[in-house]
Design brief:
It is a single chain. The strands form three sheets. This protein has a three-stranded antiparallel sheet. It has a three-stranded antiparallel sheet with strand order 6-7-8. The termini are far apart. It has 284 residues and is an alpha+beta fold. Strand 2 and strand 3 form a beta hairpin. Helix 3 crosses helix 5 and helix 7 crosses helix 8. The protein is built from eight helices and eight strands.
Length: 284
């Protein structure tokens, strides 16, 4: 065998090895490969060892069958009551028919993002600000219902979609903070006024009760004094003496109060107090 023949054999062996390598495809778990034969879809390769026709079959697409997380960019949305809010979401999808995802839509990830954004604007646009902020579960359910059928035609299953953030615009947030602060101030003012009102009522009730008790005490004292004077009058048989005794008691109490006054300098007591009291009674 000459040198030229040896070269031909080596080239032939290399060509056979390359051909065999091109005809063998090992698909890893979690992926599926799309086979095109002469530019046309031929079949989908499942995980494991697969054989294709070298030079005729090609594998232009390698599609994952694992769940894909799509981040939906934040966007401004106008609510039903003309409030601008910012909303974003995240979608979890799974490709169940790779050939549909490849040939049914151009760039399926971008298409799904646009679908979610459009549906989100439409759903929030039908709600007021308060409804949008408090009904994330309803928005998520409607989102899933509105886009599931569309992406099913692309061989894609929407597992779930979650609303990440729904936030009012910066101007609206400032307005809401001012409104909340004003509401808290109003409640504090009402609470203080209510407390002052209750305190005034309790104070007035206390004064009223004290006045009633003072009046009752004075009545009891007056009745006791009257009964004492009546008994004294009966005992001594003198009608003027009890009156003299009562006036003298009041007179002495008044002098005692006068003597303790800061403006009092000299207190003069009559030498004959009973005579003075009798003279006062006669003048009366």
């Amino acid at each position: 065998m000459g040198q030229e023949s040896l070269i031909v054999v080596v080239v032939f062996v290399i060509l056979v090895a390359v051909t065999i390598a091109m005809g063998v495809r090992i698909v890893p778990q979690g992926y599926k490969h799309i086979v095109q034969r002469l530019g046309k879809y031929q079949r989908t390769l499942n995980p494991g060892l697969n054989l294709i026709i070298p030079y005729v079959d090609q594998v232009p697409y390698k599609i994952t069958t694992k769940d894909i997380v799509l981040d939906i960019p934040s966007q401004e949305v106008i609510t039903q009551d003309n409030v601008t809010i910012k909303a974003n979401a995240v979608a979890y999808i799974n490709i169940v028919a790779p050939e549909k995802a490849v040939y049914g839509v151009e760039e399926y990830e971008m298409a799904i993002r646009n679908l979610v954004q459009t549906a989100l604007r439409s759903i929030i646009g039908e709600q007021t600000l308060d409804e949008a902020l408090s009904s994330r579960d309803k928005i998520k359910l409607r989102l899933r219902e509105s886009i599931s059928d569309d992406i099913a035609d692309w061989g894609i299953n929407l597992k779930t979609v979650e609303i990440q953030d729904i936030n009012p615009s910066t101007t609206m947030q400032l307005a809401m903070e001012e409104q909340a602060a004003a509401e808290r101030q109003r409640r504090a003012t009402v609470t203080r006024a209510e407390g002052q009102k209750q305190a005034a009522i309790l104070e007035a009730d206390g004064r009223l009760e004290a006045s009633r008790r003072d009046g009752a005490a004075q009545v009891v004292l007056a009745e006791a004094s009257g009964e004492a004077l009546e008994r004294v009058a009966k005992a001594i048989g003198n009608e003027d003496l009890p009156i003299t005794y009562l006036l003298g008691e009041k007179y002495i109490a008044a002098l005692a109060e006068l003597s303790t006054s800061a403006n009092a300098k000299t207190v003069v007591l009559p030498a004959d107090l009973p005579a003075a009291l009798k003279g006062f009674i006669n003048r009366s």
